Amino acid sequence: MSTEQTQPSGATAAAPAGVRVLIVEDNPHIIEMYSYVLKKLAANEFKGTTPLEVHFAADGHAAMTMLVGADFQLVMTDLYMPVMDGFQLLEKMRATPALAEIPVVAISAGGIDAREKAMKLGVNVFLKKPVRFAEVMDTVKQLLRLK
User: Fold this and answer.
1) Which CATH superfamily includes the segment(s) 3-9+16-143?
2) How far apart are alpha carbons 30 and 8 in whole angstroms?
3) 96/111 Cα distance (integer angstroms)
4) Domain coordinates of the chain in residue numbers?
5) Which of 12, 17, 61, 103 is the most buried (most CB within 10 A)?
6) pLDDT tens digits, 63-113
């Protein structure tokens, strides 16, 4: 399991009014695991004081539609999906000024080529599937500035 990071690019801190996370994944079982991690995070770290909203998109195209005009503090994305993959999503996010600074976690079973391509496109953290619960939790806490 490797965790790779780029230099921080002005990642936004969690908004006191609430935290909105977008999970971009086409596998419902993985969505369920990430949702569970985020619910645990909200219960343990926020202790009910900060609302945590989790939104879902099955591909990059749906994600872009949701991201434009919305206020998300974090995007967790798979890299290999139908319609628009995670690489294209990263490219579009980093090329859109209003979305360019949102921290992005790429979680993929792809090998070193996928990791390198994602890093070049500006992903903040790359996690290799299968990921451990604690690894996802620690990464999210770090990117939301909770550590």
Assistant:
1) Response regulator (3.40.50.2300)
2) 26
3) 27
4) 3-9+16-143
5) 103
6) 999 999 889 999 999 999 999 999 999 999 999 999 999 999 999 999 999
